[in-house]
Amino acid sequence: MSKKKAKKGQSKPTGKSNAAKFKEFIRSKSFARLCGALLILFAIFLFIAILSFYAKGAHIENPGDNWMGVVGGWFALQLTAKSFGIGAFGLLLILFLLGIRLWGRKTRLATIVWVTLFWMVWVATLFGYIAGHWVNNNWDPDSTSSLESYAGNMGYSISGGLYNLISWFTFIILLFSATAVLIFVHKVRIHINKEKWQQRFAEWAKRREQLRAERAEKARLKAEQQAQLADLSDKSDSSDKSDSPKKDSFEDFLEQVNQPEEKPEPETVPEVVDLTETLNPQETPAQHEDDDIDFKINMTEGEGLSDQSDTSDESDISDEADNTEDDSDYSRHFGVNDLYDPHLDLGDFIMPSTDILEDWETANVKVTKEELIANKDRIVQTLRDYGIEITEITATPGPTVTLYKIKPAPGVRISKIKNLEDDIALSLAALGIRIIAPIPGESNIGIEVPNAKPQIVAMKTMLESDAFKNAKMELPIAFGKTISNDVLVADLAKMPHLLMAGATGTGKSVGLNAVLASLLYKKHPSELKLVLVDPKKVEFSLYSAIERHYLAKMPDEEEAVITDTKKVVRTLNSLCIEMDTRYDLLKQAGVRKITEYNDKFIHRRLNPEHGHRYLPYIVVIIDEFGDLIMTAGKEVELPIARIAQLARAVGIHLIIATQRPTTNIITGTIKANFPARAAFRVTSGIDSKTILDTGGAQQLIGRGDMLISLAGKDMIRLQCALIDTPEIEKLTHFIGDQRGYSESNIFMLPEYLDENDEPTKDFDPKQKDEFFNDAARLVVASQFGSTSLLQRKLQLGYNRAGRIIDQLEAAGIVGPYKGSKARDVLIKDEVELEEILRNL
Fold first, then answer.
1. Is 571 within 8 Å of 562 (Cβ atoms)?
2. Does 205 lie in the same domain as 71?
3. The pTM is what?
């Protein structure tokens, strides 16, 4: 008897599986397309039937006289004379567009529906008034008059109700007033969407312009080749009549023609201007000594710098080789053969446009030649006062500072120039003088002098630059412009973590916003999740608008931006659990990093039934790290150190910012795992050495002037890009106003239970969830107890699935929480489970 019961218990998961398959088919894209095709065919059928009804005189007595037969005639009669009149064509339009929408095409269905319904009522009412009052002067909806069939019962009802209340003149005014209101509302909607259409048109025009330029370039190259061939044939004819030396010259010429011309791009070649002729001819004897000093101004039009080393290219080639090997085994796909699209859940998401950002007025401020010459003269005079001779000086103007490269005369010691830093600053009457002795990789010494009118580097300029738009990086960040006006773009995935420091008011918060803006402009919500920690409670408050798109949060937490220190500790430990879970998934998939894993998942080579999922990048940004260390200490430092050491391969990256770069805040453990550092102006050289391992940050001028040291790279001075609070507000509102993820699909971090947390173990039958029994059977049948399993199989949100797991634990069906691993299933027999469920 027990065996029979066991067999019956085993048959239940099969039935459940069939029901789940049926539900999955109903929710699938194929079923939606099938319904869409049926709706389109039905709309065409009704269109022909109604057209035949009116073409044959709209005979109500004989609806069977129709091109579509009795069924078509009956439908035509019910939709026209008995209901909407000629407005039934609008109903067919709605059915047709709904079918197209189900087929997968994007249409503005909501707008079309309410506009069409308005015109259906408008036309039916107008024909009802004409047919009932001005033609027949009676009320007979069943009349055989074709004119009356244009109104239908709806038109007669509305016009008949208005007949006793208003005159025909008032009726006409009312109709056209409603039309005017509709047009006005429609124009308002058009004005609201004008920015989106302008963006799309601008992109289309840009693509057209690029195609035209490519065609013109191809035509020019073709013409040059034809001209060279013609010239070559002429010379070959003349060479037949020449002697052997001329044949040798012709062979040389042929080699010249065949060699490609190396033409440097005009944007990358600096324009060197010799200003020795601009000096005053009536010079003093002391000034005449400057004639033997070669002074040049390097007016560069920077294109862009990208932090992509040669090793990355080799790794990309090896990745491609690995991928080609994997592609040969695509027969192991699970499910459909179509590639998985991570953007599908938010397929209508529109990436923000740079039009919402500001063009700052000082973005085009240039350094004058008079200022450059004056600074050059002061530098040369100061060096000569201390007996230091130089042979050449070159000025490279930047947005905030100008770099003067000087070549000292033979025999001059570098340390002698380095010690004159304060004297040069005194002679130039400027702050922020920094001497680089020597410049890495050159035989020159660099002197950085602030400009009289610093230039604002707009974030819009950074995002529209080719260096950012064409960056083939996983997490590109546009930091700002260097001294040579190059746009510095670096990949956070290769840093892999960033440490930022700077005194109050030097631009540290603006730098964090520039990082966030770069990521939001480049990555889709399905590819990126942000964890924002804001102890000051005001720095990241604007980003709460994008909670349903980009922010990751803890279960049962209302606010996605973390401001409480205790919640910070729980979140960091939860990220450690997420990191361990991801490493387990990578181990099961047989890959080493997140890009390889996601590539396998997109190609359907990883089974979601085994817990596999698409892994977005997680970027953790912590502001005021010093405050967290003071309040939580080791509780914060330990999980951060663990994430920094291990999380790179699984796509979790840290950005930490502090205004107190002291050794008790930035400890050796933190520094060892953060090879990329960025420093704004600090108060002392000790702070600069703490953050950068070298001095220099104390000599910056503030307001976004920064030094950055990427992993394995030289120190770079640049002006950080500016994005102001109104721009951030526009950006977050543009994203937040769009449709976000539903409650069941929002990205949740794993649950973390502290040692002090004591979840209730008593089971309360009154609070039992309605899906409790189904969840218990599912867990026992699969012998796998996890919240994610209940989410997928029962279509539940994370919070509800977590509560059901807690109830299963209280009922003794699953074991306690085990971190990143699934809970143990304590019930092995489904017969025993059914007995427990009956007794609860």
1. yes
2. no
3. 0.58
